[in-house]
Write a structure and sequence with these properties.
single chain; 312 residues; alpha/beta; Metallo-beta-lactamase, Chain A; six-stranded mixed beta sheet; 23% strand
Length: 312
């Protein structure tokens, strides 16, 4: 079974993960955060450097950096980590994400007037649905879990990697995995599920994705992408499938698809947009790379104005 280290980034409520094979010390980093202060536009690497320090302390060799989706609430540090690790490890770990990322990149590339040369081929691996790959001697499988976004993945990790005639794409149904890094599909039971009102989001798809996770064995651990704990509890890095089936306020066993879609649609209509929505999307469709500098040497992000019907 893998060793999973969960590092909580409290400003954005994000869980970052290092998942390692204890027998080989090979590891992957999943959903790392790049620090950004919107009041000053200052980018720092405190969270990312903490990941690097932890990797060094444990003696891990990072084989891949993985994204569950293009996040709309924090900037990714994948590109920064790739650059730093290429210096310390002697090779550049590829950045992986789901194959539908091109839909998301094209949409937001047009919306924010980002040239295709800034976001095409910034991800090294575009995973097929249910594609498996090795983490040391462990098996990881990319699960397509749409609903929050159309490109959304989870990563099922555990068991031994099985050789195949086609090693790029292989299913491992016979291999029991005890962990799923589920991104923004399920949250802690008292929070429920993620919103579905982003472009390409769909409440019916999220219900199906949630039930796909909850159809796994009861002991399987579900590791979410975020937690937003109330004052009376600490952040919780995982719950089991069984706990979600009994306790998840949005998608436990007693809730039907019709009830879920109605609840999710009404709830999403009342939510404010994420605080770092525009900044996050513009950096994340670039795979964590910063915008190209202007003639004056500045790197610029676009922020849309809301006029509330005013024209002059």
């Amino acid at each position: 079974m893998p060793t999973i280290h969960n590092l909580f980034e409290p400003v954005t409520g994000t869980w970052q993960f290092i998942v390692a094979d204890p027998s080989t010390l090979s590891a992957v980093i999943i959903d790392p955060v790049l620090d950004y202060e919107p009041a000053t536009q200052v980018i720092t690497t405190t969270a990312a450097d903490a990941l690097l320090a932890y990797v060094k302390e444990k003696g891990y060799k990072i084989e891949r950096i993985l994204e569950t989706h293009v996040h709309a609430d924090h900037l990714t540090s994948s590109s920064y980590l790739q650059h730093r690790l290429s210096q310390t490890q002697g090779f550049k770990p590829p950045i992986g994400i789901g194959k539908r990322i091109t839909q998301v990149q094209n949409l937001f590339g047009r919306r924010y007037q980002i040239g295709k040369e800034e976001y095409e081929q910034v991800f090294d691996n575009l995973f097929e649905d249910d594609e498996s790959f090795a983490v040391g001697e462990l098996t990881a499988t990319a699960l397509h879990l749409p609903g929050h976004t159309p490109d959304h993945l989870g990563y099922k990790i555990g068991g031994m990697y099985l050789s195949s005639v086609n090693p790029k794409i292989q299913t491992t149904n016979a291999c029991v995995s005890d962990n799923v890094i589920c991104g923004d599909s399920l949250f802690h039971a008292d929070i429920g599920t993620a919103r579905c009102d982003f472009p390409g989001g769909d409440a019916k798809n999220l219900f199906k994705s949630g039930r796909r996770l909850l159809d796994l064995d009861e002991h399987v651990k579900i590791w979410p992408g975020h937690d937003y704990p109330p004052p009376d509890r600490e952040p919780v890095p995982f719950l089991t499938v069984g706990e979600h089936r009994r306790l998840n306020r949005h998608i436990k066993d007693s809730i039907s698809e019709e009830q879920f879609v109605k609840m999710r649609t009404e709830r999403d209509a009342s939510l404010k947009e994420p605080r770092l929505l525009h900044q996050s999307l513009q950096v994340n469709v670039r795979g964590g790379r910063l915008p190209a500098p202007t003639e004056s040497g500045q790197r610029m992000l676009h922020l849309p104005l809301k006029l509330n019907g005013l024209e002059w």
